[in-house]
Amino acid sequence: MSLSKEEIEKKRILVVGAGGIGCEVLKNILLIGFKHLEVIDLDVIDLSNLNRQFLFNKNHIGQPKSVIAAQVSKERYGPEAEIVSHHCEIQNNKFNIDYYKTFDVVINALDNLNARKHVNRMCVCANVPLIDGGTSGFIGQTTPIIPKETECYECQPKVPPKGYAVCTIRSNPSTAVHCVFWSKQLIQKLFGNADDGNYLNDFQFSSTTTRWKEVYDKVFTSDIKVLHQSEELWKLRKKPNIWTYEEIINCSDTSLLKDVKPFVKLYYNSFNILQQRYENNGPFEFEKDDDDMIDFITACTNIRCAIFNLQGISRFEVQEKAGNIIPAIPTTNSIISGLMIIEMMKVLSQKKENLRICYLAKKPLKNHLLTFEKTSQPNKQCYICGNEVSEFVCDLEVFTLKDIINQITERCSLINPTILKGDQLLYESGDDLEKEEIQMYEKVGKKKLIDLGFKDGETILFKDDIKTMTFILKEEDRKHDVINEEIKDSKKHL
């Protein structure tokens, strides 16, 4: 079954994301002849977008991506189309289940794991087909999702963004990336809002006019002297270098320190610019396209690399790592967006038996860069599209109610859930609670599941505005339950 021109013009499509893939998708949809589109994106256009997001130019910098993408794509490719733009986050309450039900298909063009999970969940609940796609450098993937018929986005676990051990970043960096992350934490500590998760929260600095020197002496000299004294730490590698600010600044052009000197000067200049901004306007957040911030992180990164005998990196590489930037290549975006449209047309034409998951590789596999595989049936253990009743393995004597709330809320993308044990209300959350209610539920949340009367095989129910989910609590041998061991260990240090 193929779609007629009249049928195409009646279909309603939601495009989530107006970045590299989103721009290509909008163009393709309009060129086919679709007339009713909506596009959602929270971001604004910046200079770094222009090399691949072809709907934008320099005059658009600072304006909402969704608004400009809708305007420009309509002018170029679909003057008769009706395109509604929304400049806000996809988790906005106005995009509820009823909103999703107004569309024939949803296109996910996002680069954010949590947002993609959210759209997946909404489409499953609304029973609306979803076409998800993503790229990373030269590789990419397209996945068609038919609720309750194929695997959803969360049927298979997704690898979270890579993190690094705190001790490695602080005391024993082995790559330049570790130094970049350390420098990013430092800039947040010095000029940002308070953050309990900052690795350098124990650093204390004054607000004197020579604050730049106080910070330099601590992080690049006195702290290094302490690390230098640990024989155990440096058994397998060279000890860090100890250099004062004066030694580097006053070094001759023939000195081994000559390569570090420009970064020390850059540190001084960028620090004082940021300090002035901080004094005038208060704390600010890190921004990957802010030249002064990137100068500061570049300087700190390369000074620290030199101290720990590591190869330094360029300003561009620092910006890439500090901003967690995944290299985006226009050609890859174009290929993946084209594949997404092919799968979308299969869905709209009711050719579900022909649906394929498509992979784009960097290197040929059996002389092919593209690999295709059939879609699979939903994973019965999936929290989103599997059975309505799922098992949750835990140690009832270790897990508190709050432990299970945190894990299930994150896994299932629940928003302010209500928790029940049979008909008994155990826990509520949300902005409309009174102070006394919040305090009461916090107390309940700290209780262990066994103290709340839960036994092996009993059920616990989670409910928010969108979905109700039931979990069977299953006791497992503590020796084999890694999660329980981790929770036990963490509680020893509370």
UniProtKB/TrEMBL annotation:
**Keyword annotations for this protein?**
ATP-binding, Metal-binding, Nucleotide-binding, Oxidoreductase, Ubl conjugation pathway, Zinc
From the UniProt record, give the pathway where this protein acts.
Answer: Protein modification; protein sumoylation
Q: Where is the Ubiquitin-activating enzyme SCCH domain?
A: 281-318
Q: Which GO terms describe its molecular function?
A: ATP binding; metal ion binding; oxidoreductase activity; SUMO activating enzyme activity
Q: Which domain of life is it from?
A: Eukaryota
Catalytic residues as annotated in Swiss-Prot or TrEMBL = 167
Question: GO cellular component annotations, sorted alphabetically?
Answer: cytoplasm; SUMO activating enzyme complex
PROSITE patterns in the record, alphabetically? Answer: PROKAR_LIPOPROTEIN
THIF-type NAD/FAD binding fold domain mapped to chain residues: 6-382
- The residues listed in the UniProt record as binding ATP, with positions renumbered to this chain, are 17-22, 41, 49-52, 65, 111-116
Q: Where does Zn(2+) bind?
A: 152, 155, 382, 385
InterPro entries, per this entry?
A: ThiF/MoeB/HesA, ThiF_NAD_FAD-bd, Ub_act_enz_dom_a_sf, Uba2, UBA_E1_SCCH, Ubiquitin-activating_enz
> What are the recorded Gene Ontology BP terms?
protein sumoylation
Q: Which family does it belong to?
A: Belongs to the ubiquitin-activating E1 family.
Oligomeric state and partners? Heterodimer.
This one is known as SUMO-activating enzyme subunit
User: Which organism's genome codes for this protein?
Assistant: Entamoeba dispar (strain ATCC PRA-260 / SAW760)
